[in-house]
User: Fold these one by one.
Assistant:
Number 1:
Amino acid sequence: MSRSSDRDCPIQPAASVAAADWYRTPVGRLVAADLIEALGARAQTAFGYHALVLGESGAELHRRFDWGKRLRINHVAQAGPPGGDPRNSLLPVDLDALPIESEAADLVIALHVLEDRRNPHEILREIDRSLRPEGRLILVGVNPASLLHLRSRFWPGCHAPLAAGHHHPAWRVVDWLRVLGYQIEAIEPFGGVVPWCRASTYQRGVALRGWGVEWAWFLNGFYLIDATRRVVARPSRPAPAFRLSSLIGSPVRGEVAGRHSHPARLAMSAHPFVQPTRADSRNAR
């Protein structure tokens, strides 16, 4: 392919950036309101000094969900991959190398950032590195087993922005988090089972969404995972009760196969770091 054709091809935005565009649609705003309620309830039990919100959707939700008022954390930093809306006051960062000190954040809210990678292990490791022990992690993603995912891929319509990226099932993300030592606090579905495009129809389907959360939670369009970083203390090596110099050459009375040997010679030859001399071997013969 020539260079001119490469220039003509449009650059696809990141999945987290495309999800922010979907939250600006009429139906997306209603789903964002449900997400705001779920995030607010979960964030009430998170305490600390520093919070990190990852994803372009964080700026869109910030317009209706003031992080400073709803969170119990004073300092909130918002960051996301480059390529988003320049009007958003987001810090452009590389998700594989976050510019944050290790164990500096008390709360991390990741909105659709795992969907930017087919294998988001580096992103999870960076989030784990930046989160302090006993810190909270809240992940939001699109459910690939939902009708919303199916429609965004084959009959996109108003859900076309959600077709970008790689959607990971909640059970797989939970397995990744458990490998990293996280305790899963809750998995909450939201967004409903039926992927409506009309805001009025979505508003009338409150009872249907309640039924979907109770009985068809695995078919809801989105999921929220709340996890706590647990760090198990590794047992330290016991301090030796003796010194190596005191063991070498000390008179030890030993008996091997009913025969008495010289005590000093037995102690010297039995030690793994001391080799017997030629004189000792001749005397042994």
Number 2:
Amino acid sequence: MAMGKLLANANVRFLARALSAALVGAMAFTASANAQSNWSYSGSNGPNKWHEISGANSLCRAGRQQSPINIEGTDPAVMHRLKTNYLVTPVHLKNNRISVNMFYKKGSILTVGTKVYELEGFDFHTPAEHAIAGKRMPMSIQFMHRARNGSRAIIEVQVKEGRTNIAGQELWELLPLEPDQVMKRIKTLVNARDLMPFDKAYYRYMGSMTTPPCREGVNWYILKTPIEFSKEQIALIRGIVGGDTARPLQNRNNRIILDARPQ
């Protein structure tokens, strides 16, 4: 009872701070985002204009393996399990004006069969970037991995509205509310594994990064089982960056989407 009351009070307190920050900086948000990265999720430099901002972003329009997409019409296949050997890491969060990123120290490994990737960090998107059977959940968490040869693998965890996420609350109390703000807590340790479901059954396809320059050749693993965050927790992460942070769904272009069945 006491813990529930404490979490509820914490949610209200941090949501109030986030909404206050969003209101104060609302008019400056788009301009400041442009100044830093020259692209955003809306307006004159939104997703439909990314390819015009720089020649390096040509794939954002011309690419044939772009992400995110709607997950449907899948093909069953026997696939390797996702083995996440993640270590705990000190909190290192940054508000980069487009999203909130959590950076991970070296040494945390994702293994898929013979492929080995290192976890670089994770970020949050509202709503979820991928849709499943035409439905987008209110939030997703994307865990970014890179192999020694430079290839990338991203695990996306779908987030539905429900109970307060206890593991998430540790981060929520330290979220950087101001643009360019960094929050580091050397003595506060988190494990990315705690933000994933126990069941890591997944959909698999080849796609791209979902932000400019939209590089292709990314191995996407969309977990089937969602986790829960409270309505207040989801509102907080959305309020910090001032709106939606999901790229519109892209054309599938006849790509195969595998419905992985573990070996």
Number 3:
Amino acid sequence: MRDSLSPATSPTLAGSPAATLHLSEYTLGTVDNALPPLQPQAAGENFLLLFSLGGPALRCRTLDLGWHLAPDHLVWLRHLAPAHLRSSSLRPARLLAWRFTAAALPAELAEILLALPPTPAILSGPRPLHRAEAALVLGLRSCPVAPALRSLWAGAKLVEFLTHLLPAPKSSATHPDPTSASGLPAPVRTALAYMDAHLAAPIGLTELAAAAAQSPAHFSRTFSEALGHGPTAHLRQLRMQHAARLLAAGHANVTEAALAVGYQSLGQFSRVFNEHHGRPPSAFLPRKNA
């Protein structure tokens, strides 16, 4: 399947659609545009990074997943099927798309990516770009090397970017990972992984139960018996913890933190945050940003 985007509005920055890596910038209108995997025959080995550069939010969907990508946000997903993209308003939206396969990466990194769980399709985001990531994206667009070296340069930058996206090892002594605890039922482990990957998405009990392949009532009972509290309470806890980390590290302001953990209402986010942490979100900001 070929790109349905016009070459005039999608200049290639590095690689090509026929290679294992393709970095391109797009200008999108309200017409649905399809961005296919680089190597559809290599199921499970195609990945896609999307960066919204400005203008209105993007409406995105692939398979049965749909999401909005706000300006200066990213999403990383397994590229299992064409990604359909369009602007959410009459104004054009700008997008940087980084399609790549495991073959474009060093063997050690490719092995890590291929070992990731096959589901969910979205591996990270949608979430705001951190400062270091925004600087890296700016460098990608300027591409300050000779044309003959761009694919090599982009491959090195891709490795750098993936080190930001891949989760750091967690210490079981200070921050236990419930998905690795022995004895947890498989539906609970699946739901926990789904939560981690969809903190910014509008998910609830229905979506979590579907990911666990159980009815909402059965799933809620299974989850509560395993962890001592319900799935929606656990999701809220994960969101509040992630928002606090973003704020404390200076990676997001209060509005960005709210969007990064799935809250469209700043008032609701502030209320839930204050109930969970005993302090308002602004109290977690570094002093220079407070």
